[in-house]
C-alpha cells in the first residue's frame, strides 16, 4: 500500500507540474505575442544550427563550421536564400531535407507560428490566440486592443486563415512540383533526381527562398522558359501573402468584395513587376556581361525574371555581380520593398509603400484624410508604415556600414547583399560567400531582424496606442 500511495503521489505531482508548465506556456503565448514569436524563431534557429552542424548533414561527413551552420539555419528559417557555402555540393541528402523542412516551417510567418503553437498548447483557438494570428495579417491586432476599422481578416475568420496557410502551402507546392517535373526532364535531369528536385524547387519558389540543389544553381535552365515561368509563378503566389490568397479563395474574381489590403497588394505588386522589368531592360540591354549577349526575346524575358526575383524570389540566371551599379541600386530598392504582408517574402512590404504613396498623394491634393477604393486609411496605419520604413532603413544602414568597414568591399556590393539579407531575398553579388566570420554574424542578425523585426516593431508601435482623455496644446515645427 505504501508503494502504491507513493507512486500515486508521484503521478499526481507530475501531472500538477505538467499542468503548471502548460499554463505558463499558455500565458506566454498570450501575454506578449511578438516576444513569444521572436522566441520561437530563435529556438528554431538554434535547433537547425545544431542539425546543420551534424556530420551527417554535410556531403563529406565532416562537422560544418559553426558560423556556416548558424548562417544557413538563419537563412533557412528566415527564408532568405543567402549562403556562405555552396548549397548544391556542401550538404548531403539529409542536409537538403533539413533545408526543405526549415523553409516550409519558416515560411508560415512569425505570429502564425506563435498562434499555431499556442493552439497546440491551449488545445483551442480562443480570442487571444485569434488576436495573435490576426497580428500576422495586421500588426495593429497583435496588441489585443480595440481596432474598430475593417481588417484584412476578421477575427471570426482567423481559424479559416490558419487552415488556408497550411492548405495553400501544401496544394500550391504540390501543384508546382507536378508541373516542374516534366520541365526538369526536358532539361536533361534524370528521372530519379527530378523526383526530389521538383518538390525542392517548388518549395524554394513558393517560400521565396531561392536555394538550388545543384552547384550551378538554375543556370542550366536558362532557356527552359516553362521552368523559369513556373518559378516566377511560385514566387508570385508566395509573395502576395496568405490573407490575399484567402481573399481570392473566398471571393474569386468578385473584385468589389476583395479587402482593401488585397487590392493594394495585387495592384502594387503588378506595377512594381512591370516597372522593374522596364528599368532593368533599359539599364542592362547593352551590358555584354548580362543582357547584351542575348537576343531580344531572351533580354525581355530575363528582365521580367530579374524583376520578379528581386522582389524576394532569390533565383538568378545572370551574374548579379556583373550588373551595372545603377541596376544594383534599382535592385536594392525593389528588394527593400519586398512582397505582401503575411507572406513568405520580406522587405517593408508593398502595402507599406502603397499607404505611404497614398499619404503623399493625399497631401499633395490637399485632402484631409488618406483614401483608397472608397475606404479611409486611419492615421495609426500610416504611423506604423512610417515606423517600419524607419526601422528597416536603420537596420540596412547600420549593417552596410559595419560590413563595409570589416571587409572593405565596394559599398554598392555590400549594400545590395545587406538589403538582400534584410528583405530575405537571397540574391548576392558574390561577396556573401567570402565574408569573414564577424561579418557573417552581422549578416545573420540582419536577416533575423528583417524577418521578424518589422512585424515586432509594428506590433509594439500599435501597442502604444492608448485612449487619451485630454489634448495638449498644438505647436507646429517647420518641416521641409
UniProtKB/TrEMBL annotation:
Keywords: Cell membrane, Ion transport, Membrane, Transmembrane, Transmembrane helix, Transport. One of its GO terms (cellular component) is plasma membrane. This is Ktr system potassium uptake protein B. GO terms for molecular function: monoatomic cation transmembrane transporter activity. Pfam families: TrkH. It is a multi-pass membrane protein. The chain crosses the membrane at residues 36-54, 97-121, 161-181, 225-249, 261-283, 333-361, 381-401, 438-463. It is found in: Cell membrane. GO terms for biological process: metal ion transport. It comes from the Bacteria.
